[in-house]
Design brief:
It is built from 21 helices and 12 strands. It is an alpha/beta fold.
Length: 494
């Protein structure tokens, strides 16, 4: 390689590469550089390479020094000092990427894209770390920022979360990241998508200036460690198996929190959790298919579910629910058949897992294994016939007639008994009536004249008659409620 050549090059002959990692320039930082150049000139030469075009004047591509070039144009310089270096496309891009990574003002997302470019060139995170003099953990965490969802990126750009939140969110994928983002935005059990939540936060901020603060970093870190993803202890398949998916064994998968020290070493006591729910579900389905394909006693396995049902099974190809199948011990009946569960149970995830093989009986009329759906049909047959609307109307009419007759008989007997009263504890009755003084001005109270019944001049017969009318008027709605116990209580009061 030839020695670098230091020359002054017109600013108009210098061009930024289309593959430049730095996509934005901080306005404040650019202003500071411009002021420095206006006072002291360009102190550090740009690194460029010549672009060869037949018959054209020399043109140069900036390898390092995009900000200095932009500041020089703002400062009005005609030329800038440059080191012209012979470089291939790959060498120029790598030098430019590394140079930008060493700048303090590069945004984390641009830094992540730059590391992604280097990963394609250098092949590993450790090689990148050596090239840029960073720790492997730092490079791995920055690389993960490329995994941020659109909603996570938007929450970051709107400043609803910080870069520290984004670094945590980027550790998990798909549904797990969505779940963690919603938690970071203070959303609990609501199923509102995070994109809609961000829209609402933007509207509220623009309307009244209120910006919702995200949860603390420690809270989000705890949530990711203990609430997101799927516990691998609940996995149905052997974690060390590579037969259920091309993704390989879970024990060494980087999406297993317990197996990825680069991303999750700072999460104290982190459990073995899968952060890729799509992969977890795919492996579950594949394991069930493998179990169903096994030749179990030469019989095709039935598909079983832990969910319950009291409905009669329709076909042998359906998924049989608990109540349609019952466990069958060896030699217990001639209908004993192998089955494979296709779902998880609700109560004991250590045992109730997909892929579990169980021998069951699903046959109808098996004397040894009566099914829940058969018992349900017997109970249905024993139920009394449901009355029609016409029958109900006729029954209520008859009951009302009988009720009115009984009410008239008892009322007459009650009033006759009142007429025989000569003396009674007036003070006790008055106190009882006053305890219901809130009813004096009600329609019933005015009709009966409750307020007058507490006076010393009220006659005993009038008091008892008034109380009887009050009682009857207050309780007459009992029949309209169609409540047999209320009607009985009404008659008991009489």
């Amino acid at each position: 390689m030839k020695m670098d050549t230091l020359i002054q090059i017109p600013v108009g002959d210098l061009h930024v590469s289309e593959r430049e990692a730095r996509k934005t320039l901080d306005a404040e930082s650019l202003k500071e550089i411009t002021n420095s150049i206006m006072q002291f000139g360009v102190q550090e030469p740009l690194i460029v390479r010549e672009l060869v075009e037949e018959g054209a004047s020399p043109q140069y591509q900036i390898v390092c020094g995009q900000r200095r070039h932009a500041a020089a144009k703002l400062a009005g310089l005609k030329t800038v000092p440059c080191l012209v270096r012979e470089l291939t496309d790959a060498e120029a891009e790598e030098i430019g990427i590394v140079s930008n990574l060493q700048r303090e003002d590069i945004s984390p997302l641009e830094e992540a894209r730059a590391y992604e470019e280097l990963l394609l060139r250098l092949g590993s995170e450790s090689a990148i770390a050596r090239r840029v003099s960073k720790s492997v953990a730092y490079v791995a965490q920055r690389l993960r920022l490329t995994k941020l969802s659109d909603d996570s990126r938007r929450a970051l750009s709107e400043k609803f979360i910080t870069m520290d939140h984004a670094l945590l969110l980027a550790r998990v994928d798909g549904d797990a990241q969505e779940q963690a983002l919603r938690y970071a935005l203070h959303v609990g059990s609501s199923k509102t998508p995070s994109g809609q939540i961000i829209d609402e936060c933007v509207v509220r901020r623009d309307a009244d200036g209120f910006t919702q603060e995200p949860v603390s970093i420690n809270s989000l870190k705890y949530f990711i460690a203990y609430e997101t993803g799927k516990l691998l202890s609940t996995a149905a398949w052997p974690l060390g198996s590579d037969e259920v998916s091309d993704a390989g064994p879970c024990t060494v998968c980087p999406k297993n929190m317990a197996a990825n020290d680069l991303l999750f070493a700072d999460l104290d006591g982190v459990e073995a959790r899968c952060t890729d729910l799509g992969c977890f579900d795919e492996k579950t389905k594949n394991f069930v298919r493998i179990q169903l394909a096994l030749n179990t006693d030469g019989l095709k396995a039935l598909r079983l579910s832990y969910a319950q049902s009291d409905k009669k099974p329709k076909t042998e190809e359906q998924i049989f629910k608990l109540g349609q199948w019952i466990e069958a011990k060896p030699e217990s009946c001639k209908h004993r058949h192998p089955g494979v569960f296709v779902d998880y149970g609700r109560w004991n995830l250590d045992e109730e897992k997909p892929g579990r093989v169980l021998y069951v009986c699903v046959a109808a009329d098996c004397k040894a294994h009566p099914k829940a759906w058969e018992r349900a049909q017997v109970k249905e047959a024993e139920k009394p016939k449901r009355e029609t609307p016409e029958e109900r109307a006729e029954r209520l009419k008859k009951e009302r007639t009988e009720f009115e007759l009984e009410k008239s008989r008892r009322t007459a007997a009650f009033m006759a008994a009142i007429a025989q009263v000569k003396d009674f504890p007036r003070a006790l009755v008055a106190r009882e009536i006053k305890s219901h003084s809130y009813l004096f001005n009600t329609e019933i109270g005015r009709k009966v004249g409750l307020a007058k019944l507490v006076s010393d001049t009220a006659k005993p017969a009038d008091i008892y008659k008034g109380l009887a009318i009050w009682l009857l008027a207050d309780r007459v709605h009992s029949f309209d409620s169609d409540d047999d116990s209320a009607r009985k209580g009404f008659l008991a009061d009489l």
